[in-house]
Amino acid sequence: MTTKLNLDAAQIQRLKEDIMDSLDEELENEFEDVGLGDPESSSAKALEFRKFYFRELIKLQGELVKLQDWVVANKHRMVIVFEGRDAAGKGGVIKRITQRLNPRICRVAALPAPNDREKTQWYFQRYVSHLPAAGEIVLFDRSWYNRAGVEKVMGFCSDEDYEEFFKSAPEFEKMLTRSGIQIIKYWFSITDDEQYSRFLGRIHDPLKQWKLSPMDLESRRRWEDYTRAKETMIERTHIPEAPWWVVQAVDKKKARLNCISHLLSQVQYSEVNPPEIVMPDRVRNPDYIRHAIPQGMIVPEKY
User: Fold this and answer.
1) Residue 245 pairs with which residues in a beta bridge?
2) With contact defined as beta carbons under 8 Å apart, do 68 and 102 qualify?
3) Please, are residues 127 and 143 in contact by the beta-carbon 8 Å criterion?
4) Is the pLDDT reported for residue 291 higher than 80?
5) N or C: which end of the chain has fewer CB within 10 A?
6) Of the candidates 196, 198, 193, 221, which has an alpha carbon nearest to the alpha carbon of residue 209?
7) pLDDT digits over 221-274, tens only?
8) Using CA atoms, how far apart are residues 210 and 202, in angstroms rounded to an integer?
9) What is the DSSP letter of 142?
């Protein structure tokens, strides 16, 4: 995007501060992941990788912006499905994908458990309303594959419903691709020990306890049941129109970079050159009077 701006030194400094503030936002996300530890305790190798991680992430996010512009310009429609065990890192990569994008173009669908009415509908019905229109990207933080995972393991669906899902899901996805919707499906894979460590982190971190539910804790006990369900799901729904891609997610940072890089490789996008943007002059009227804001309405400046 090109702009015509004549900037003075103060304005240039302001733009630099805005960029640093954007980077600080990413640092806040990292602190949320690892806790506020002592940076001096990190090894030199870890600190070097962290620098590399941030450099690569910013570059990849720049490419995501180009992808977004291409999707809009070409009226493309994308569905990206994120599945995996609890605490596998799906939310983290979704956060990094959407961080710099327009939420009106790239949005997240994270549906709660179906209500009584939805339980009586065609199984895929409540997901259909979240599918993208032209020029949109939808990221499903869990999806219709709930039936092949948690519903199967926890006994929330009958054997007949489970089998019907495997007949319907490939046909459903083929129908979507025939209509022009691109589907990309990711499974985030972590080890038993890694999930155990992440659950412990959530239990002992007050800022993360909300992420744990009784269902998450029960999933620990049923680890092997989830493994069998996952293997069956991938075997029976891995189709050419919408194949599964497995992200090795024990290392969160590497998983994010690998997933975003792979996602970008799945679309033959190109940079879109928008019209030049010219900042209009601010209109000043001599009779304009700005009224003072009552002091009682102002938020106290505690910081």
Assistant:
1) 186
2) yes
3) yes
4) yes
5) C
6) 198
7) 999 999 999 999 999 999 999 999 999 999 999 999 999 999 999 999 999 998
8) 8
9) S
Give residues with Cβ within 8 angstroms of 3, minimum separation 6.
Answer: 276, 277, 278, 279
d(CA 49, CA 43): 10
Helix or strand (DSSP H, E) at 79:
strand 77-84
The secondary structure of residue 42, as a DSSP letter, is S
The pair of structure tokens assigned to 3 is: 């702009």
Long-range contacts of 2-8 (CB under 8 A, 24+ apart): 2/273, 2/274, 2/276, 2/277, 3/276, 3/277, 3/278, 3/279, 4/276, 4/277, 4/278, 4/279, 5/279
The dihedrals phi and psi of 35, each to the nearest 5 degrees, come to 85, 160
Task: Print burial letters for 22-56: b (CB count within 10 Å at least 16), e (below 16).
Answer: eeeebeeeeeeeeeeeeeeeeeeeeeeeeeebeeb
Q: Which residues contact 259 (CB under 8 A, 6 or more apart)?
A: 93, 186, 247
Report the alpha-carbon distance of residue 26 to residue 133 in Å, rounded: 29
CATH superfamily of 75-252: P-loop containing nucleotide triphosphate hydrolases (3.40.50.300)
Domain limits of the chain? 75-252
pLDDT of amino acid 33? 59
Q: In sequence order, which residues have a C-beta less than 8 Å from that of residue 166 and are 6 or more positions away?
A: 148, 236, 237
Distance CA 245, CA 242 (A): 10
- SS3 state of residue 8: coil
Residues whose CB falls within 8 Å of the CB of residue 239, separated by 6 or more in sequence, listed in order = 170, 173, 174
Centre a 10 Å sphere on the Cβ of residue 259 and count the other Cβ atoms it contains.
Answer: 27
- Written as six digits, the tokens of 251 are 């290392």
